[in-house]
Design goal:
Helix content is about 50%, strand content about 25%. It has helices spanning about 15-30, 45, 50-70; strands at about 5-10, 30-40, 75-80. By secondary structure, the protein is an alpha/beta fold. The chain is built from three helices and three strands. It has a three-stranded parallel beta sheet, with helices on one face. The chain has one domain: 3-Layer(aba) Sandwich (Rossmann fold), CATH 3.40.50.
Length: about 80
């Protein structure tokens, strides 16, 4: 089994920094980068048509930004868990 670096992403600056650093480490050591993102929409947001759309859009943006930053990365996988 090939060794890998695993990093979680969310909508925080620390998460974005961790993703960038993990990508650098993986590239330098020829490791697979595994990015994990949990798509969780709070129950109250799901109860209203006015809040569910923006909540989903925000999660879509987080995922899209992570995928964009990984473009050109030698070997990576994006795991998205919907809760």
């Amino acid at each position: 089994m090939k060794r890998s670096v695993i990093v979680g992403v969310d909508d925080t600056g620390d998460s974005r920094n961790a993703l960038a650093r993990a990508a650098e480490l993986a590239r330098a050591a020829s490791l697979t980068l595994v990015v994990v993102h949990v798509r969780h929409i709070p129950v109250l947001a799901e109860m209203s048509s006015m809040t569910i759309g923006p909540a989903r859009q925000n999660l879509d943006l987080i995922e899209a930004e992570a995928r964009r930053k990984l473009a050109g990365q030698q070997t990576w996988a994006f795991w998205c868990r919907r809760s």
